[in-house]
Amino acid sequence: MPGKHMAGTSDEPCRRCKDNVSVLVVRSEPLCHDCFARYVHTKCIKRLESFRVNFGAEQQRRILVPLSFGVSSTTLLHILDLHLKTQKSKTGRTGFGICAIYIQDPEQKVQAAQLLDKAREQYPDHHYASLPLHDVFRMVQDDASIRSLVPQTNETVGWSPEEHFVRMINSLTSATARADVLSTLRIRLIVEYAKSTGCESVLWGDSTTRLAQKTLAETAKGRGFSLPWQVSDGSSPFDLNFHYPLRDVLKKELVSYINMADPGLSSLVHETSSGATQASTSSKNTTIDDLMTQYFESVEENFPSIVANVVRTTSKLEARPDALSDPKCNLCSMPVPGGRFGIHGWGGDQQDGDDFESTHARRDICYGCTRSLPKATMNSCSMFNTTIAMKLSNLIVCPLLSASKCLAHWNYDRIIVNGEIIGSPYEYIRKTNNSNYPLQDVNSIYMRCNSGAESGVALTTKTYTVAAGDMLGFAVKDTFGHPGPQQIYLSRAPGPAAEYDGSGDWTKIYSLTYSLNSSYGASDGILKWATHNARTFNFKLPSETPPGDYLLRAEGLALHAAHKPDNYQFYIACAQINVVGTGVGVPGPTIKFPGGYQWNSTGVLIPEFWSRITNYTAAGPTLWPEGTMEAHVLDGTKKTGAD
């Protein structure tokens, strides 16, 4: 696991220098502070061989570094500054000069002026600029091609660049379309600024994780033909070279680097709590980019090689030798193979060809951009809504990366009684209809028993008889691949369990959280999670439980993205049980679902999660019976290295 912090008491030596104590584990290799910093620097600098000092050059080369003041671009600026200082100390010259540009995006809440001032103060040898995104309508030389994509009225004649920009963005009908067009315009503006300042190359701060996300997002949006220019080092269709120096570094490694660096560096990082990369609880506000980003940031936690393999494989793609001679899209400016513009050009429309050509192809926009443009210029079948994005997440991403499932996600499929796994999968557990995808809306009724686990499924699910005081448990399809707690709730049915919708009161009877054993579990910050890689877990059904039919609810909460609002991931299932015995207890305290948790509840939103948290309080009420303590040791089995 990349960037895995070790407990402060660890005496394991650094595997590279052998002298210092290791402070984290990077891809199974314990490293000290200095060796880890050198590791990140080397990964970046080895990509800059073409920017060595050229003693014969009369004029210094210039490169452009786009800044977002996120972890990646800030780290890149820092490393480049160190590299130039090293070059100058050795040769008296530098291989290139740096221009840094920040694009003011109306949907981002970054205090650009203050952060640029900090950057100038910390790295004074470079040139800095900030431009509003609407300047793309001023700086693009053939701005008529972009302006032609803005919905026209008699009033648009003589409009300012800002007015054209606002009209274009307001005409976009989906979150995915807005995110896609904003990103495209941002790239166009960065390119034009690079040309205007004499820069020969753009050095993007994309990490391995970001490039993997971009690979599948662009493919899903219909722009896969552009991948050779969007993820690989080398020439681009803009008569500039694109380079990705951080392409071999995972985002989590960059987060660790920032956390271990001087405070001056971390003060330049502005991570908004509601930026475009967080998945919204509202499906209509979720974009394809959000889904891909969230997916890869979770996969890199335990399976970094999968993320690296996506980027490594994509980097082998090559454009045709004559590709740059193809006609270009008016919006993204990417060469369109054979000039096959629009949906009709790729055989994806359901309209008459001549009619479609008259309204679409003449506008010279590629298949991907056609999907993002206003509905008035498209047929209804070309609107790429969030439902399609969700399906692509499961149907394209999961099979491609993990052969048959989304790695690190899980389902509960069988119950355990007194150490014995009972029945076949979902015989006694209501089966969800969302594969192994998490829930991210605490206000949904699916917080009771997951998506699709309503009466239709319930009536076909059997009810198993257990005794109060039995040891119960859940077996997991796959494993608990994310950090976070596992909790068990109990709700008594007013009649048969198969007819109960879970709308009544719920009592928490079990909570398994972090491990007290510093050598066990997955490390995030300083905490290690007792739930990590578990395949089964067991707990005691209170002997005080009164007889009757119940829903037994298993709840796993993945916290790897919970530092941002609404980025929590709940995995939930309900078993149907009939309890026999002489228990006369009164379960409580109780909560209801939905309503028991809020988006900012303790244990659900953890802004400091990646800042080495040392304690964790689980969401929900106290345990019943009174005096029951949460567990810190797994009673069950877990995945081993041989599995």
Describe it.
The chain is globular, with a radius of gyration of 27 Å. It is built from 18 helices and 22 strands. It has helices at 33-45, 71-91, 112-122, 136-139, 143-147, 161-170, 175-196, 208-220, 227-230, 251-260, 263-266, 288-302, 304-314, 353-359, 367-372, 386-402, 446-449, 455-458, and strands at 4-5, 24-26, 29-31, 62-67, 97-104, 127-132, 201-203, 234-235, 241-243, 411-417, 420-422, 464-467, 471-477, 486-492, 506-512, 514-515, 522-524, 527-529, 536-540, 548-558, 569-580, 590-591. With 643 residues, it is of the alpha+beta class. Helix 3 (112-122) links the parallel strand 5 and strand 6. Helix 1 (33-45) crosses helix 10 (251-260), helix 8 (208-220) packs antiparallel against helix 12 (288-302) and helix 12 runs parallel beside helix 16. The strands form five sheets. It has a six-stranded mixed sheet with strand order 6-5-4-7-9-8, sandwiched between helices. The protein has a six-stranded mixed sheet with strand order 12-21-20-14-15-22. The two termini are 17 Å apart. Mean pLDDT is 82; it is low at 5-9, 272-278, 347-362, 375-405 and 519-525. Helices cover 28% and strands 17% of the residues. It holds the Pfam family AA9. It is found in: Cytoplasm; Secreted. Keywords: Carbohydrate metabolism, Cellulose degradation, Cytoplasm, Disulfide bond, Polysaccharide degradation, Secreted, tRNA processing. Residues 409-606 form the Auxiliary Activity family 9 catalytic domain. One of its GO terms (cellular component) is extracellular region.
